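The instructor's notes for this session suggest beginning with a concrete chain rather than abstract definitions. Hand out the sequence below and ask the class to guess, before any prediction is shown, which regions might be ordered.
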Amino acid sequence: MIPWILLGTAQTSRNGEQLRLYQRDTEFSIKADSQELMNSQVHGSEDALAKLACEKITNYPDVRVLVGGLGLGYTLRAALNELKRDAEVVVAEIVPEVLEWNQKFLGHLAEHPLEDGRVKVQLEDVAEVIKAGRNDYNAIMLDVDNGPQAMFQEGNDWIYTNNGLQTSFDALRPKGVLSIWSTDPDPAFTKRLIRTGFKAEEVKVRARSGRKGGGHYFVWVATRP
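After discussion, reveal the predicted structure:
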């Protein structure tokens, strides 16, 4: 059996836990201690996070979207594939090493999305980027800490609170879309989105694009009026 090779480590900013990048042959994995956060062979739900949001806004002029965070680059690539050439895609990534890993090891996985001229990277907490926005984005796509329930880094839960959702609502342009990735369904969170003013639905998506097996994850698609 081909062994995993450790390519890099990174300390998280809030609780001292460590991210690790591994490679096994053509497969890549990012883990937090012993928990796998993402894997290059299972990215169908990350693709869906972008597609479900961007398909609603592709015909708008001067589209500007926010992706948080970078991960293995699959959500960014899916957004770029959906959007026109005049769009702007802001990527917020809080861990500098994740950006470095994409530049050094991972770019080929998603056809080098960081080299696209539409992309602007901000090495910053996506929550702070959202707070700074006001009617700035046609879409905000969030893959942060496994969703509203599974917390890896302390402080990430703010995004999913009433205050955090209202801030995302305010950062969106009219008819803008907030999409959120999650490991698990959460009917109470759907209701929270609706109370904020969104028209929201929870969508079950395949973990592997176009393939059976590999389980399912969930994406909320919430549209601002």
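Then share the key points. The chain has a mean pLDDT of 94. The domain at 42-223 is CATH 3.40.50.150 (Rossmann fold).
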